[in-house]
């Protein structure tokens, strides 16, 4: 039996109304892969983890961040060079929701170790 990816956390995308999410909202599909990047220069949160969407042309768009208080472990792993440890995917896209903070959710899983 092959091991599945292990669930790590599910979170909304914080601050999405202040970043690029509206520019690519129509391109975002549930299940699309997203990148996690520790934003070490963030003046609001030393553990800020940016959530990045890469479009078909390879352009990066900052969708927002993991919520404060849900980001420190991931930031620490990213700092240690473990970028490939996590698989981050869009799990909810609710364009009907009036609160922009509740429109986009991600699920983060731990990848199986490559042998």
Helix content percent band: 10-25%
What is the element string, with H for helices and E for strands?
A: EHEEEHEE
Biggest sheet: strands side by side, in what order? 1-6-5-2-3-4
CATH names the topology as: Alpha-Beta Plaits
Structural class: mainly beta
Task: Kindly provide the radius of gyration, computed on alpha-carbon positions and rounded to a whole number of angstroms.
Answer: 14 Å
Percentage of residues in DSSP E strands: 25-35%
Distance between the termini: 16 Å
By CATH reckoning, the class would read Alpha Beta
Q: What is the annotated CATH architecture?
A: 2-Layer Sandwich
Summed over residues and divided by their number, the pLDDT gives a mean of 93
List the uncertain runs.
none
